[in-house]
């Protein structure tokens, strides 16, 4: 069973540059999962509803606590890309003894051209074979928590040690 924790972000279609979009035009992770036709058993719990630039270490501690206290050993966290690396590093230092994959989207989840469905499906697949640890799975790549950075100029993630 995969436990999915949602925290808000572009993957759900929140355009934080247009605050009114949050109420008008969002897409639940449940809707995205239905669109990818996964056969994996999963449950979803929303723990935050924030633009990731406002995610704090207290929020990260809440995520770590939720991850530690859930029975599942396979955890997916949907997260905004702005501070995804910081959250992965925080979680990676917690010795959670679970497989934790963070994913999100660079293009609004409600946009037909969004990478949300691909990234979510890829992350669910990655959970099936990754060993215990904390990872970021984005756009067909998997990064270990201590070897990743966000290239803001090109809007992508990359390994620190290439």
UniProtKB/TrEMBL annotation:
Domain of life according to the entry: Bacteria
Signal peptide residue numbers: none
Protein name per its UniProtKB record: Asparaginase
Positions of the catalytic residues: 10
Species, as recorded: Aquaticitalea lipolytica
Pfam family, one: Asparaginase
Record-annotated L-asparaginase N-terminal domain positions: 2-155
One annotated GO molecular function: asparaginase activity
Residues in coiled coil: none
């Amino acid at each position: 069973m995969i436990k999915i924790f949602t925290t808000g972000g572009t993957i759900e279609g929140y355009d934080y540059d247009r605050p009114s979009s949050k109420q008008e035009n969002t897409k639940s992770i449940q809707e995205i999962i239905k669109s990818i036709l996964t056969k994996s058993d999963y449950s979803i719990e929303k723990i935050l509803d924030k633009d990731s630039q406002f995610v704090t270490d207290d929020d990260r501690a809440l995520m770590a606590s939720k991850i530690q206290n859930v029975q599942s050993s396979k955890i997916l966290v949907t997260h905004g890309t702005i501070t995804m690396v910081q959250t992965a590093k925080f979680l990676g230092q917690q010795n959670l003894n679970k497989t934790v994959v963070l994913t999100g989207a660079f293009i609004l989840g409600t946009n037909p051209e969004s990478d949300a469905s691909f990234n979510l499906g890829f992350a669910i697949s990655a959970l099936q074979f990754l060993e215990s640890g904390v990872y970021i799975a984005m756009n067909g790549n998997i990064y270990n928590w201590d070897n990743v950075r966000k290239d803001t100029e090109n809007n992508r993630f990359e390994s620190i040690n290439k």
